[in-house]
Amino acid sequence: MTTKKNVKPPDAGRLHSLDAYRGLVMFFLAANGFGIAAAAKGMGDAAPGWLQTLAFHNSHPEWISQFHVIGVSLWDMIQPSFMFIVGVSMPWSYAKRASLGHSLAKRAGHAWGRALILVLLGVFLTSQRRPETIWMFTNVLCQIGLGYGFLFFLVGKSFRVQAIVAVVVLIGTWLAMVMFPSPEGTAGFAVHFQQGSNAIETFDRWFLNLFPREKPFESNPGGYGTLNFVPAFVTMLFGVMCGQLLREKSISDRDKMRWLLGAGAVCLVLGAVAGLTICPVVKRLWTPSWVLLSGGYCIWLLALLYGVVDLAGWRRWTFPFLVVGMNPITAYVMSMTMRGWVRDNLKTHLPGAWFTGSGSPVVEACLVMLVFWLILWWMYRNRVFVRI
Length: 388
Description:
388 residues, 16 helices, mainly alpha, two-stranded antiparallel sheet, globular
């Protein structure tokens, strides 16, 4: 992990839409959904319809996504967007290191070193306020790290090769899930994707108990699993494919937009069809249908930002998000480690009335985010950027 000073903020050589996308994702992640879901939950049935709608978009579904009925929540899109952005940025990082004369072996070593740091940092954050190291790998940084080293070897490869790998991984994941024996006394196709008895959770009951722990691992309360990184690898690969497209100088801007919009549409259609037929959309298991559905939305959002920010040149509105997006690791670590401390100190030094009433979760989340943003703004102004 390095801290770079006196590095100029984004210039004309950067893909500004990628900076904006990263900033949007990290802003909403660090803001913890602005406390909207907690506020709506506190009001119960008395919550107005508009607040319930906002609460839906700031929370995860319990298990299977009802995307065809109520859509996909924005909060569900945070992690796939985070991982997709990592993929989009990799062709730029790859090209930069190649231009510096780094050999393939040196670049690969850097990629695998970065992957290891991400995994260990994810474990560290998962273990916060716990009496022992919690060897679990479902944190988004762990999931990125587990796939990052393998993804490196696909950067710069042809679209055909990348597409074949994506198809093989998704089909292989689906086959592993549906061929896994159903628990005794259960029947039906959907049982292969239910919480507590699927292949991914069964793997963790063996794998995670290989690590030292006070009590044997039995299940993840949210149903997440280590092997989620395998299909999530395709989410990042979609990002690599889009990043290479946007770097390609022989393709016009208009054609790049067409490719992005078309690719997003194909992913959405395939994901929806799969979700309604052979593969339920379960974000917590990162099912192949979820990879396609969320990937389609990620690609479309990138296309939208590329058109607005890079092609139309409308960039001023992105500044609040850019401040966060230029230090994504710092923003994420702060949100995971400092939220409680900042909240408690705000309650100590600000009027108590601000933190009472049905809207207090929103006020609390916004004030905490303001503190985080001011720290990140200071870092941005002083050109301090933390990188792994």
